[in-house]
Design goal:
Length: 71
């Protein structure tokens, strides 16, 4: 299941905190300077928004994960 099938959602509170959820469940809360940088980057392109939200949640493949061994 990818980001297209199960996208992240976000909400910015009055105090600038970003609440990131997926599948209706809160995944992470981002606050302070990190939230301000995130808000500044969001809203330009939905695909990029999904990548940014995945990165802040830690749910992002960086390409350096070990792969399982197939006999």
């Amino acid at each position: 299941m990818g980001l297209e099938d199960d996208p992240f959602d976000h909400r910015v509170t009055k105090d600038g905190t970003v609440l990131v959820s997926r599948g209706g469940r809160l995944v992470v809360t981002v606050a302070g300077a990190r939230a301000a940088r995130l808000v500044a980057l969001l809203g330009r392109d939905p695909a990029i928004d999904q990548e940014l939200l995945a990165r802040v949640t830690g749910n992002y493949r960086r390409g350096n994960e070990k792969r399982g061994h197939r006999p």
